[in-house]
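Possible regression after last week's pipeline update?

I re-ran a chain I had predicted before the update to compare outputs. Posting the input and the new output here so someone can diff against the archived version. Not blocking, just want to make sure nothing changed silently.
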Amino acid sequence: MNIHEGNLVGADVEYIWSKKNKTPMEGYDNIIIHYTAGYDALSSAKYLANDTTNVSAHVVISRDGKIYQMVDFGTQAWHTGRSQFKSKLHLNRYSIGIELENYGPLTIHEGKYITCFNKEVPEEEVVEMMHPLTRQNCFWQIFPQEQLYKLKELCKLLMKTYKCDRILGHNEISLTGKIDPGPAFPMDQFKKFIYTHRYR
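New output (post-update):
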């Protein structure tokens, strides 16, 4: 996988372009990690690229490692919302947005784990962890190794190409209480790996 003129090139990359995003990036400070909370990666990519929605991201990574690119890396995507990190506001201007196919928080009903759109999730894909806002334990869909491997590969490539120096979760920059990528995402371990191996 490589980057050519702001576009990913590789066997596992598909393009679903967002025509609504036209403003050039002002810099490359951050890579922001999100979860989709959608039905699957393809439907999420189509939603984010749709002209009638006011959100977008640069890429979506599916659970099996396929990547959908909606916005080229030279153009701002609309993924941070009201956001701040240190002294900077409106981080879409300086941040690459990566969405991971993941349902986010789940509910349990009659012994079954259910998404917000009533899809059942297999027990082997579920972990119980504390909700960052309520401080109560609830259920979350795990992030599979295939997806995390592709995310590592992509982040290393982006950091090498654009000299991004920071990985952040949406929860770390949101001024509106966003919690993604959620507690099931191994953020501390992921950051440690990327910062150690970013130029290798």
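Follow-up from reviewer: compared with the archived run. The chain has a mean pLDDT of 96. Marking as no regression found.
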